Amino acid sequence: QVQLVESGGGLVQAGGSLRLSCAASGRTFNSDARGWFRQAPGKDREFAAAIRWSSGSTFYADSVKGRFTISRDNAKNTVYLQMNSLKPEDTAVYYCAAGMAPTIQFANGYQYWGQGTQVTVSS
After folding, report:
1. Which of 52, 57, 96, 101 could link 109 by a cystine bridge, Cβ 3.0 to 4.6 Å?
2. What pLDDT was estimated at residue 1?
3. Residue 28, helix vs strand vs coil
4. pLDDT per 10-residue tile (average), the chain, 123 residues
5. CA-based torsion, 80, 36, 76, 117: positive or negative
6. Neighbours of 29 (CB within 10 A)
């Protein structure tokens, strides 16, 4: 089993920044993909960013590319999502996920999910 705990959400004005953290514990050795997904009210969950733990390769949705940065801390088994130049349309619950994820942007490839953290961007 893998446990994921997110933190760092909150309320910020448009143009501001937030950093989300996702700390993993348990049997993470077979969860090479760590991703961030988000779900806005009334919308489907969508891919935001991901990282391959083994290689460090990063992947981004077009909507966040150039504004968000995903990174990892191996020693802490933690993934971060630095979000800059936030827009009101970034408002959503952000979920951390872990799994093998053969296709890294597809949510059904992730076996473990955090509880979610709310990000609200005011205009």
Report:
1. 101
2. 86
3. coil
4. 94 98 88 95 96 95 98 95 98 96 93 96 96
5. positive
6. 8
d(CA 29, CA 8): 25
All residues at 6 or more sequence positions from 123 whose CB lies less than 8 Å from its CB, including other chains: 14, 88
Tell me the Ramachandran region of residue 111: left when phi exceeds 0, alpha when psi lies from -120 to 50, beta otherwise: alpha
Which amino acid type is present at position 60?
Answer: Y
d(CA 121, CA 123): 7
**What is the 3 state secondary structure string of 36-59?**
EEEECCCCCCEEEEEEECCCCCEE
What's the Cα-to-Cα distance from 50 to each of 11, 16, 47, 58, 80, rounded to whole Å?
23, 22, 8, 6, 10
CA distance 59 to 16: 22
How far is it, in rounded angstroms, from Cα 86 to Cα 54? 29
